[in-house]
């Protein structure tokens, strides 16, 4: 059993550095993409406060297909042309939204979500997935959160075998 230890008294930069060390230890010795995506989603949900959804959507042609996640039942497919996840897929840039209700084409899979952070998962220059985190709190994600979670996603990418085929 793996125990996650979170010291919320640390400055955010140090907190994310500590979380990254724990994540690397959790994923050591395992390269299966689906297994690591499931573990990563659970790790994020257990490590960070004020979240109601964390998980992956995998890129399939011009849409995102639901992958491993932790949270309520979710949208199964998201076209690249819609929503915050679609914007991350189209632009290949992280999307940090303080109030999802201000986004005209936001896709509300969970009405309790008020803010969102979506990080594109890019491997060898190719979009493979997006990692999506939702919070019931508006303005939940700061620039420090974004940078910290981007570092965690990079560790997930490095630990995983991207030659996996469904």
TrEMBL record:
Domain (GAF) ranges: 42-154
A Pfam entry, by short name: GAF_2
UniProt superkingdom: Bacteria
InterPro entries in the cross-refs: FRMsr_CS, GAF, GAF-like_dom_sf, Phosphatase_reg/MetRdx
SUPFAM superfamilies: GAF domain-like
Family per similarity comment: Belongs to the free Met sulfoxide reductase family.
Protein name, per record: GAF domain-containing protein
């Amino acid at each position: 059993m793996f125990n996650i230890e979170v010291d919320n008294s640390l400055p955010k930069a140090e907190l994310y550095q500590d979380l990254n060390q724990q994540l690397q230890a959790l994923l050591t010795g395992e390269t299966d993409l689906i297994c690591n995506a499931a573990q990563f989603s659970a790790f994020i949900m257990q490590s960070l406060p004020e979240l109601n959804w964390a998980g992956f959507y995998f890129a399939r042609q011009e849409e995102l297909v639901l992958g491993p996640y932790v949270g309520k039942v979710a949208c199964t497919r998201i076209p690249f042309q819609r929503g915050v996840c679609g914007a991350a897929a189209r632009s290949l840039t992280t999307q940090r939204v303080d109030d999802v209700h201000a986004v005209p084409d936001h896709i509300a899979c969970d009405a309790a979500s008020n803010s969102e952070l979506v990080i594109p998962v890019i491997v060898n220059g190719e979009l493979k997935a997006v990692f999506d985190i939702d919070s019931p709190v508006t303005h939940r994600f700061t620039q420090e959160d974004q940078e910290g979670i981007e570092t965690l996603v990079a560790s997930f990418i490095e630990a995983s075998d991207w030659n996996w085929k469904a």
